[in-house]
Write a structure and sequence with these properties.
Radius of gyration: 41 Å
Distance between the termini: 27 Å
Largest sheet: 3 strands, mixed
CATH topology of the largest domain: Helix Hairpins
Low-confidence stretches: 240-264
Mean pLDDT: 87
Helix content: over 70%
Strand order of the largest sheet: 2-1-3
Length: about 260
């Protein structure tokens, strides 16, 4: 394999990892915003339940006051009834008393309804308060974790960018320009491995002469279909190498080199 291709493979591996870290760092603020939005929604629902409970209690208090007023009226009307001088006056006082009693019954019925409504409201508020307190603690812990992760990612990203700059400096300018152009075209993936004479990115079979040239390892070649930079890892003759204990260096997709010793 052309030595410059080893550099580009390493460059591709660094660029892939850099892109992953950049996406992760960019996603963390969105993640924090989402959990804060969920927390805010739960807070608003709790406030709505509290407002409903407060309104319920306020209406009950008003109705209880109305009942007291009506009872006071009834007491006065009964005193006036005793002083009635005609049947018409007596019946008028009785009619007023009956009206006040009806208003009291309406108020009492409404109070019973409100009491029935207040029980689940009160339970919801207490449960929501407990759940919200726990959720706030979890959100703060998640935010702290996210900030720590973001800082660690940023540190690693800075290190990878420095390493990438060193590797890119070693790549011939023409190849670096080709790599950047193809990487931009294919959304970050500029290289393609060839297996069995086929580009493993677009899956088009290479012309025999192009494949032969690639196997020679002297030139930098690109796929005639997709335009990606090609590289070829010759298959290892396992049976042969097991008998000789051959030390084999295999270029890994990420740019590193893995070493294996094959023994009988």
């Amino acid at each position: 394999m052309n030595p410059d291709i080893h550099l580009v493979i390493r460059l591709q591996g660094l660029d892939s990892r850099i892109s992953e870290l950049e996406r992760e760092i960019a996603a963390l603020p969105k993640h924090i915003a989402e959990i804060e939005k969920a927390l805010d929604g739960h807070q608003r629902r709790l406030e709505a339940d509290r407002a409903a409970l407060t309104a319920n209690q306020k209406e009950r208090k008003k109705l209880e006051g109305d009942i007291q007023v009506q009872e006071q009226k009834i007491s006065k009307l009964r005193d006036q009834t005793l002083q009635a001088k005609t049947n018409e006056q007596y019946r008028a006082f009785q009619h007023e008393i009956e009206y006040c009693q009806q208003e009291i019954r309406k108020a009492e019925d409404r109070i019973l309804d409100l009491m029935g409504e207040s029980e689940p409201l009160d339970a919801n508020v207490k449960a929501a308060e407990t759940a919200l307190k726990k959720e706030k603690e979890e959100v703060e812990a998640e935010k702290k974790k996210a900030r720590g992760r973001s800082a660690a990612d940023q540190k690693q990203l800075d290190e990878l960018r420095r390493e990438r700059a060193e590797v890119a400096h070693s790549v011939p300018p023409a190849l670096d320009k080709l790599y950047e152009r193809v990487r931009k075209k294919w959304h970050g993936v500029a290289l393609a491995e060839v297996q069995d004479g086929r580009c493993m990115r677009c899956f088009i079979t290479l012309r025999p002469q192009l494949f032969q040239n690639l196997r020679g390892g002297n030139d930098v070649l690109t796929c005639e279909s997709c335009g990606r930079i090609l590289y070829y890892n010759p298959p290892v003759d396992v049976e042969k190498d097991m008998t000789s204990g051959t030390r084999v260096d295999l270029p890994a997709p990420g740019g590193a080199t893995s070493t294996a010793t094959l023994r009988a």
